[in-house]
């Protein structure tokens, strides 16, 4: 595996992103603070103000992402006054107006979600993973995320009927069809857009940590070795740590100094810029030299 670089910035994403060159990033995987969540850590953003808060960041992400790149946004609506708030749906529409293509929506099924009881709903066991792109043709490596075909194939494919051996056209007139015989001898198949993954059991001193398997899956799907992965809301650094392990270049941005320090301590040979101390230990080829001073704006 070839060497990769990791850069960590401590500061406001909206400002730090301005120092990154155009079309420099292959994949963005991030989970920003949800509306009215992580109040003690990030101060919280009201649902009614969430779109206005996020759009300047979305504009910079659109600029730094390569035309062939992908943006994965992990987010979830909150329940308020007995109903789900619409700020996530409003954000999707606003991002589309900003120039993003809403290409796909993955569902993260949390296999070990917390038990609970509410008077008008059941416990949350899933979150959205919204996929946005700059253009319809983008880099995607589907073979890298194939899954075992499953035990169902042993019995279903052991005794094929005459219909199974030819293309069976849909009975509802949709134009689609299938040929069951095509599944013979297959050991792996393409996955669905529902990802069944447990949440992170140890929170690593952070209020919201997703499992390493989550960014790993998207890094496999949308990048190759030496591509660049960005997380503008780095938190405990899960995305950039996984990217580093997988031989990808990575950039992490986090506004809470304690998390920056923690991530820096866990990473070796890492380029690190802290707004207050301005420590730089490695060159940053993806950062525009004439705008490096902007990285030291206050937060």
Taking all Cα atoms into account, the compactness measure Rg is 21 Å
The global form is globular
CATH structural class of the largest domain: Alpha Beta
CATH architecture term of the largest domain: 3-Layer(aba) Sandwich
Tally of helical segments:
8
Number of discrete domains: 2
* Strand proportion: 15-25%
Helical fraction equals: 10-25%
Secondary-structure blueprint:
Blueprint: E1 6-10, H1 13-16, E2 25-30, H2 39-42, H3 50-64, E3 65-75, E4 79-80, E5 83-84, H4 87-98, E6 101-110, E7 126-133, E8 147-148, H5 152-156, E9 168-169, E10 177-178, E11 188-189, E12 194-197, H6 213-222, E13 228-231, H7 238-245, E14 249-254, H8 257-266, E15 271-274
Parallel strand pairs: 1-14, 1-15, 2-3, 2-13, 6-12, 13-14
Antiparallel strand pairs: 3-7, 4-5, 6-7, 8-11, 9-10
Helix pairs in contact: 3-4
Polypeptide structure, described:
This protein folds into 2 domains: 6-146 and 190-296, Vaccinia Virus protein VP39 (Rossmann fold, 3-Layer(aba) Sandwich), CATH 3.40.50; 151-188, no CATH class. Helix content is 23%, strand content 23%. With 299 residues, the protein is an alpha/beta fold. It contains 8 helices and 15 strands. Helix 3 (50-64) runs parallel beside helix 4 (87-98). The strands form 4 sheets. Strands 12-6-7-3-2-13-14-1-15 form a 9-stranded mixed β-sheet. The protein has a two-stranded antiparallel ribbon with strand order 4-5. The radius of gyration is 21 Å and the shape is globular. 32% of the residues are buried. Mean pLDDT is 79; it is low at 38-42 and 273-299.
